[in-house]
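User: Second chain of the day. Same drill as before.
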Amino acid sequence: MSKINDDSNDQTTGDSAETESTCFPWQSPSSRSFDDVGGLDSIKEQLERLVVRPLIENREEYARLNVTVPNVLLYGPPGTGKTYLTEALVGEIGYPFVKITPSIVQSRFVNESAERVRDLFTEAREIAEQYGHAVIFIDEVDVVLGSRDIANAHHEDQKVVNEFLTFLEESGQQNVYVVAATNRRERLDEAAVRAGRFDREFHIGIPGAETRREIFRTHLEGRPNTVSDDDLTWCVENTEKWNGAEIAITIDEAARRAVERGGDTIQHEDLVDAIIDQTSERVPSNIPL
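Assistant: Same format as last time:
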């Protein structure tokens, strides 16, 4: 048994999440918000409208008209920020959440995986009763909700899918909200993405130029730096087809290089060196360092 982990100083919307015993790794949300997510403005706006406002800002008005909060599926290539965006969403709404990976649900024992799914949603319902709502984040959801039509689908896997589908339909009525992420949407069971289960889907793709610029800005914010707009333009032009995770790693590497050269700020040369390190390519000679 474990307890709700409350590593931050933030409070949930309900009572403080402190000592309730749980079987799954429930956590109090961190202080991360949409402001910490570079780019993805359209998706953040839609999540604000579909999730944050009904749950937080105008609860009574939405409840009076029986407006439901949809379960959300985020899909796209690895490293594009699906998990980061989910954590920001959880921070915005401020309720206890649990991150579920396939290893937490799957078991080598017959029937046990399906039982763990039931236990998960039973526990989520209890958390929601105590704190108002509960959020389940399912990473790599294609593994636990894979198509039941494939030839080698195992009977136990089919039972897990059936359990998930049943509880997804009932989650909204129990104030349990589900967000899922996958790199392989095509592997999901068709029944999972129909209305009443995952009602809304958002594709998180490789960021374009303006989104990359915002990601650089977001990760530089709060770190002493002398990076100018022209410097950012160079960075954007030399990171085409990079994902958000790669850019974040590059900023960390630039900060590390700044420390190693004895500097107290991140400078353009640190970013240039970090980008070269990531791409193993030479900087064009006509680019001033």
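Residues 2-203 form a domain with the Rossmann fold fold (CATH 3.40.50.300).

User: Great, on to the next one.
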